[in-house]
Amino acid sequence: MKLALLGPIAWRTPPRHYGPWEQVTGLLADGLARRGVDVTLFATLDSQTAATLDGVSPRGYEEDGGLDGRIWEGLHVAHALARSAEFDLVHNHLDWLPLAFSTFCRARLLTTIHGFSNRKILPAYQAADSAYVSISDADRAPELNYCATIHHGIDLSRFAFSPTGGEDLVILGRIHPDKGTADAIDIARRAGRRLKIAGPIQDHSYFTEQVAPHIDGQRVCYLGSVGPEQRSDLLASAAALLHPIAFAEPFGLSVVESMAAGTPVAPCQRSSMGP
Q1: CA distances from 121 to 96, 145, 240, 271 (A)
Q2: pLDDT tops 90 at residue 228
């Protein structure tokens, strides 16, 4: 079997720091290649993989301000679909854009839906000739037919288990109202514990107005976007991971990573984080 994995190109695969879709796609490519599957990963050209690498974008557009993501994603999809006849299956991890051009795909198309940014994108899913996989039962759209739910996996060897933890609270992920960063600050204050914040700033106004004024390096610390090794140490040395999401999150990788490190999670009961 010849498999094409159509990955995202916002970040390198695997990501240096943030990049959950790239992380999942990279683990899948490596795992299948090591099991003898003939896998071609379409990703940024600086990506590292056990599969065969192909692509057009030199770097992730979130890592290079000179790259326009709209342009390079279009070129990326066009390049992959132009080669689609060479494969038995094209597995799409790039959201709706490849679906808009699914009639040009010359192999069976499978799409893992990593979450809906907006229900307005559903027409692209409904019109496409693709099978769908959800990453949690809670994230299924009733308008679509799914062939399976496959939860995310992680590389357990990258996370050191700690049976003791520490005293600090941690929030890990993009800094955005959806993730509840400011709520985590309030929770930590009321709990009388120091909070460590790690993740890229996605909403700069939110960060400036509701997060930055509380960062003092003592009770509230901002560590920036951290890579896998730092993430493991950060989680293993924490008392708990806060996950006060303000949206119906399809599935949280940081939640699984925290439990792999032996650190309990304090989530909001919403969507896949529900009971």
Answers
A1: 7, 16, 35, 19
A2: no
